[in-house]
Design brief:
The structure holds 2 protein chains of 2 kinds.
Chain A lengths: L8 H4 L3 E2 L3 E6 L2 E6 L3 E3 L2 E4 L5 E5 L2 E8 H22 L5 H14 L6 E9 L3 E6 L6 E2 L2 E4 L7 H7 L6 H18 L7 E7 L2 E7 L11
Antiparallel strand pairs in A: 1-7, 2-3, 2-11, 3-12, 4-5, 6-7, 7-8, 8-9, 9-10, 12-13
Chain B lengths: L18 H13 L11 E2 L3 E5 L3 E7 L2 E3 L2 E4 L5 E5 L2 E8 H22 L5 H14 L6 E9 L2 E7 L5 E3 L2 E4 L3 H11 L6 H18 L7 E7 L3 E8 L44
Antiparallel strand pairs in B: 1-7, 2-3, 2-11, 3-12, 4-5, 6-7, 7-8, 8-9, 9-10, 12-13
Helix pairs in contact in B: 2-3, 4-5
Classes of the chains: A alpha+beta, B alpha+beta.
Chain lengths: ~220, ~280
């Protein structure tokens, strides 16, 4: 009979969002995007997961790394931001949200393995993108993360221009995601894109067959 | 560790008790490599699936529980009651899924009584996610939760590390790849009840056929606004065996040779009466 366990290895492996996430600032807002693949080893556990989590009305975060850790961090910060915004009596700043994420990331550095990119719009600073990798807090004009980001560093460095319009930023995000999903085995599915500005957050889902194609597709 | 006297109640110490792990390690050392293997926990190497249809949710599961390569239970119930409108399929370590769903059910009942509200599926999911995340994957419970509440029909999966997925159709367990193939092919939004039941049954059947850890019969559970239809079994295994012999023995099979009755003298040493406060 069988010597090894009846359970395949991926059943006992932690579920990771091997991912591509990206966020870009533009004049008056931000565009944040992600793929939708969640893997456990070689198996895809969820092919349509929305990795763009709401932190507040006009602040979103993109999840990457361990699915459980990232989801729990986002929920914890969502709660803390709600309390904070009630205490100060106004909408929270993007920097506040990012600081809360950073605090958890830094304090539980050894225990958690998740990276969240925080992006949103507030009255004081306009559109902002913050990186919170490993517990640092850094504002950047654009940020990429997840396993698929390695494949698009060249693309984003070459193609990013300052002062892109809302539409150009959305195209930039969708192109970057499509390229990464095409090369990274752990990224795929559909692309979720959220555009946040003064009026609110607009969510869009770009299906697999609607994604831009490149020379070999 | 002292041997407990049989007539003295030994209250369990608080916190986690890993004495058996220490005992197992010692046994493995003493008896040499390969001679003793610690007994593997009973896992429900399983196929479980769920589908959201027009009027509610259909959950399905096989009924085989394995302990390594032996079938420990041929008619194991993997669809657990959580609330009148919420049921949960469990894969992974049998004891973990059983206890986790029991705890969840108790918590939700207390909540219902406290607030006079029917529990929502999202509440069950949040409690589960919180608990499993706290235990960092040590609780091997892979759960599919389905239910109908005021906000509609919902189907969630919760992993042992605390990750949650909400999707219209799901399969989990060692037979999930086989079942997922059937679901991906046959699912469409707003299925009719019969279509949904057939689809889930085919999905579980595919798991039973293609996975060694799944087998026996198919259980189904249909949850709608009106109520729950727990069909156990929905489809019986085609490979049932006929018992070749009888295992019952008639009274008198073993002859009694001699009978000896000795009365035992019992003296009352001490009698205490404690009044119950019934005020």
């Amino acid at each position: 009979m069988l010597e090894e366990s009846l359970q395949p290895g991926w059943l006992s492996e932690e579920v990771k969002t091997g991912t591509t996430i990206i966020a870009v600032e533009f004049e008056g807002g931000v565009v944040i995007g992600s793929d939708s693949r969640v893997s456990a080893g070689a198996a895809v556990v969820n092919r349509v997961m929305n990795k763009l989590s709401v932190l507040h009305d006009k602040i979103y975060c993109a999840l990457s790394g361990s699915a459980a850790d990232a989801q729990t961090m986002a929920e914890a910060v969502n709660y803390q931001l709600d309390v904070h915004s009630m205490e100060v009596g106004e909408d929270p700043l993007v920097r506040s949200a990012a600081t809360l994420v950073k605090s958890i990331s830094y304090k539980y550095k050894e225990e958690l393995s998740a990276h969240l990119i925080v992006a949103g719009w507030d009255r004081r600073g306009g559109g902002q993108v913050y990186v919170t990798l490993e517990g640092l807090l850094c504002r950047q004009p654009f940020a990429i993360g997840g396993s698929g980001s390695s494949y698009i560093y060249g693309f984003v460095d070459a193609e990013y221009r300052k002062g892109m319009s809302r539409k150009e930023s959305q195209e930039f995000v969708v192109n970057a995601l499509a390229l990464a999903m095409g090369r990274d085995g752990s990224s795929g599915g559909v692309a979720y894109v959220v555009t946040i500005d003064q009026t609110g957050a607009e969510e869009k889902c770009v299906l697999g067959n609607e994604l831009p194609t490149f020379f070999d597709e | 560790v002292d041997m407990a006297l049989s007539n003295v109640l030994e209250l369990p110490a608080s916190g986690f008790n890993f004495e058996n792990s220490a005992r197992n390690a010692v046994l493995e050392d003493v008896l040499g490599d390969g001679k003793t293997k610690t007994p593997k926990p009973m896992k429900t190497g399983t196929t479980i699936a769920g589908v959201v249809y027009k009027d509610g949710v259909v959950l399905g599961a096989d009924t085989r529980a394995t302990s390594s390569e032996v079938v420990a239970d041929k008619m194991c119930a993997k669809i657990h009651y959580i609330a009148p409108n919420i049921y949960c399929c469990g894969a992974g370590t049998a004891a973990d899924t059983e206890k986790t769903t029991d705890l969840l059910s108790s918590n939700l009942t207390i909540f219902s009584m406290n607030s006079s509200r029917n529990p929502r599926v999202i509440m069950a999911v949040s409690i589960l996610q919180d608990m499993l995340f706290r235990y960092h994957g040590q609780i091997g419970a892979f759960l599919i939760l389905g239910g109908v509440d005021f906000t509609g029909s919902h189907l969630y999966s919760v992993g042992p590390y605390g990750s949650v997925n909400e999707v219209p159709y799901l399969a989990m367990g060692s037979g999930d790849h086989a079942a997922m193939g059937i679901l991906e092919d046959g699912f469409k939004p707003r299925l009719e009840l019969d279509e949904a039941k057939t689809l889930v049954c085919s999905a579980i059947h595919a798991g039973i056929m293609s996975d060694l850890g799944s087998g026996s019969n198919v259980d189904l559970c249909v949850i709608t606004r009106q109520g729950v239809d727990y069909i156990r079994p929905y489809q019986e295994s085609e490979f049932k065996d006929q018992r070749q012999g009888r295992y019952k023995y008639k009274p008198g099979t073993t002859p009694i040779l001699r009978e000896n009755v000795e009365p035992v003298e019992v003296e009352v040493m001490q009698e205490t009466v404690q009044k119950m406060d019934t005020a």
